Amino acid sequence: MPYGDRGRSGDIDLATINWGNYDLVVIDESHNFRNNTKGRREEDGNIIRKSRYERLMDDIIKEGIKTKVLLISATPVNINLRDLRNQIYFITEDKDDTFKQSMGIHSLKETISVAQREFTHWADHKKNPERNVKDLLEKLPSSFFKLLVDATLKKVATVLSEEKGLSPAIRSVVELLVLLITLLVSRLNLDSRNSSKPPSSDPNRKKVSRAKGDKKAGGQTRPHENGERLGVILKELEPFKKEIQGIL
Known about the structure:
Layout: E1 8-9, E2 12-13, E3 24-28, E4 40-41, E5 47-49, H1 52-62, E6 68-72, H2 82-92, H3 100-103, H4 108-123, H5 133-139, H6 142-162, H7 168-187, H8 223-237, H9 241-247
Parallel strand pairs: 3-6
Antiparallel strand pairs: 1-2, 4-5
Helix pairs in contact: 6-7, 7-8
């Protein structure tokens, strides 16, 4: 899509377009918006010309009707995790605390800054000559995994519940993939119920006061229960083997 507000794109006069009237924006190669650059401004701060990031954010996503955003990129991070943050801001309409209520993430900026700081330290060969991935995973904040994993799984679950036109084979495949991801994350002890930081140093952990003897048994899913669910889904997939092979 064009980003200027003047001129033409083919036969279309860009000045006639109501840029705030789109309820869905699909951004292919979204990493091209990884930099939240500012446009040209006068000495007193008045805008001379907006950057394309500002045009997309202010005049299309924030302006007019509510806009959903779909980001597509094979390389969302080019330099550091700020690249990812700037793209996520399109989804949150530049709001830093969008996921505070739903996921307990108080600040996108802080979450990604902490993750970047831990990664930078881990990747430094001089400071950390005997690095391993497990050490990195243990130091990354729990909110970072909530942002990357939980949000995705919840969105997939929502789509599965709302989309009635999915074939049984596709639905079963997606459910299987979601379960496998959940099992892998749980194996790393990094699912949303477990923090990778002590409670005192993790601002995103909810503090719950509980009297002695008040703990209810069976609140969490046990490993054997996940195994049983996996067995059920695999059994359901049996009649659709040929169709699944065609999908894959």
